[in-house]
Design a protein that fits this description.
It contains 21 helices and 13 strands. With about 550 residues, the protein is an alpha+beta fold. Among the domains are: about 5-95 and about 160-200, no CATH class; about 100-155 and about 200-240, Phosphorylase Kinase, domain 1, CATH 3.30.200.20; about 485-545. Strands 1, 2, 3, 4 and 6 form a 5-stranded antiparallel beta sheet that branches. Helix 2 (about 10-20) runs antiparallel to helix 4, helix 12 runs parallel beside helix 18 and helix 16 runs antiparallel to helix 17 (about 390-410). The longest helix is centred in the last third of the chain and has 34 residues, at about 435-465.
């Protein structure tokens, strides 16, 4: 970001720096270059005795919606961010003071393309919920259908763009001048977050995610997502089925049996989403899960979802089983198989760190069953060893942590392993089914036959290039640069040695013949030859001593 842009947003920039200072990050800010007088006008206060992770969360909440979203997206980088910071960032509150309906109405009418009364017979102007990006209202269509209307807040794009520009400017300064922050690569994280938030501002994507889940859901009698009304929905407004019921956090009157049933339904649904469908709700916390009056679980807010290919799902299932069985070697081997070609992980160090993480997070003998936290720690360990696994793995770990928390809220004896086991068994059976073997074999044969069909054509192209003498082979010997330099130096010294020897021999012949003129009784040319050979010889000796024998 250019300096004059910072000055254009000087008030907001000063506010951001003041908040960071107030929460104890003055030591980082003091390492970057700020405009003269800008830093000195800040009034730092001593931070309270809180952990670094907690201070990051509090600063993000105070800075507003853009930084709340940034913190939430940073919590999806377990390959670079320590798991304690991620767990704290998950607590970021996305509830803000609602805007009056008079401010929101132009967005609603502009997206609908008509007046509110032409679409809804009733519309409650008091928002039922308010978040950083949108507010939700209850209304009723003209046919009597009760609906929920999600309306995006006005001027979000301009506000967030300005905040992201300032955040990127600050991140670049910190990345350049604070070595401790370089492994996180803050500029890349903020660039990725900007793209993700802009992606989330298009409500049509959320609508497609919601509809896709309902089309894949094998148990609509137990879990579901609200039905959409696409004829009234757009980029900035969603009109969906209104679900009457109770949040999972408010099921005080429910029986133990009902609570266990709901916990099982939510866990089994998420496991099927992750391992069978490869498409899952990435943020199923208590605020996004509703218990409908008919007893079904409703998953809300499908703006953030994860996608896993078959290969990633199979690897994840292997990770999961190996983690439960405390098989450290198997976990490290799976990670190494998924590593980039140029990665050089320290497998012994990985084994030690993975063993420690599993003992601390999955100690079943003392009731420690934090599968989600264990996956977060494993992803961080892999990232530190140069194995940055799929971002969707991070989303999965976050989703598992959320569903574990919801499950234990409903059932203190909740054990996610019990609900994952039948799903993993189904996935394992699918992987070993003869139909899958035939399918993989058919795919292999198909690719082989296509390659064989192309082989004559490729050979013909090679022969034509040989005929026209335009076949060039580029050879690049890596790692030989030092040897090349050594050969050049040796050749130069040998050449100097030959010259010195020739001078000595030639000078000796001149001295023997006694050619005029003389100097101090000896031929002058001979003396000059001896002096030149001495100077060159001393230079060679000095060069060898200066650069070492290896040169």
């Amino acid at each position: 970001m250019r300096p004059f842009n910072v000055l254009n947003h000087a008030v907001r920039a000063k506010e951001i720096l003041a908040v960071l200072t107030r929460h104890g990050f003055a030591d980082f800010l003091s390492q970057i270059d700020l405009p003269v007088g800008f830093w000195q006008r800040l009034l730092p206060r001593l931070p309270e005795r809180r952990s670094t992770a907690e201070r990051i969360r509090l600063a993000a909440e105070q800075l507003g919606p853009t930084f709340v979203k940034l913190g939430q997206l940073l919590s999806m980088r377990p390959d670079a961010v320590p798991h304690d910071v991620i767990l704290e960032l998950r607590k970021l509150q996305d509830r803000v003071q609602p805007l009056p309906f008079s401010v929101m109405q132009p967005v609603l009418t502009g997206s609908l393309g008509r007046e509110v009364g032409e679409v809804f017979s009733e519309f409650n102007e008091e928002p039922a919920a308010s978040a950083s990006l949108a507010q939700v209202y209850f209304a009723r269509l003209h046919d009597g259908t009760p609906v929920a209307v999600k309306v995006q807040k006005p001027d979000l794009m301009q506000t967030m763009e300005a905040d992201f520009d300032l955040a990127l400017w600050l991140a670049n300064l910190l990345h350049d001048r604070v070595p401790a922050l370089r492994p996180i690569d803050l500029p890349a994280v903020i660039t990725e977050a900007r793209a993700a938030v802009l992606h989330e501002l298009d409500f049509r994507r959320e609508a497609r995610n919601q509809e896709y889940f309902n089309s894949l859901n094998p148990h609509p009698a137990r879990v579901f997502a609200p039905r959409l009304y696409p004829e009234f929905s757009s980029e900035r407004v969603l009109v969906m089925e209104r679900v009457d019921g109770t949040p999972v956090s408010a099921l005080g009157a429910a029986s133990d049996e009902q609570r266990k049933r709901l916990a099982a339904a939510g866990a089994e649904s998420l496991m099927r989403q992750v391992f069978i469908a490869g498409f899952f709700h990435a943020d199923p916390h208590a605020g996004n899960i509703f218990v409908a009056n008919d007893g079904r679980l409703c998953f809300l807010d499908w703006g953030l979802v994860g996608h896993l290919t078959r290969r990633l799902r199979n690897a994840l299932a292997d990770f999961w089983i190996a983690s439960v069985e405390q098989d450290t070697e198997r976990i490290v081997q799976i990670a190494a198989d998924l590593a980039p070609v140029d990665a050089r992980p320290d497998l012994r160090t990985m084994e030690k760190e993975v063993t420690l993480a599993l003992r601390e997070e999955l100690n079943f003998t003392v009731g420690r069953q934090a599968l989600g936290r264990a996956m977060l720690r494993l992803l961080y360990i892999f990232g530190q060893q140069g194995i940055p696994l799929s971002r969707d793995y991070a989303l999965m770990a976050k989703a598992v942590i959320s569903i574990e928390e919801v499950g234990r809220t409903l059932d203190p004896q909740f054990d996610l392993r019990r609900h994952a086991e039948p799903v993993l068994r189904e996935l394992h059976g699918e992987r070993l089914h003869p139909r899958m073997f035939v399918r993989r074999t058919t795919e292999m044969l198909r690719h082989t036959l296509i390659g064989l069909q192309d082989l004559p054509f490729e050979l013909r192209r090679l022969v034509r290039r040989l005929e026209h003498d335009n076949l060039a082979i580029n050879l690049n010997h890596r790692g030989l640069e030092q040897h090349d330099d050594a050969i050049k130096i040796a050749a130069n010294r040998i050449a100097l040695g030959v010259i010195i020897g020739a001078l000595i021999i030639g000078s000796s012949l001149i001295v023997i013949t006694g050619i005029q003129p003389h100097f101090l009784g000896y031929p002058a040319l001979g003396i000059i030859g001896y002096l030149l050979s001495a100077v060159l010889g001393l230079y060679v000796i000095w060069d060898i001593i200066r650069h070492g024998r290896h040169r």
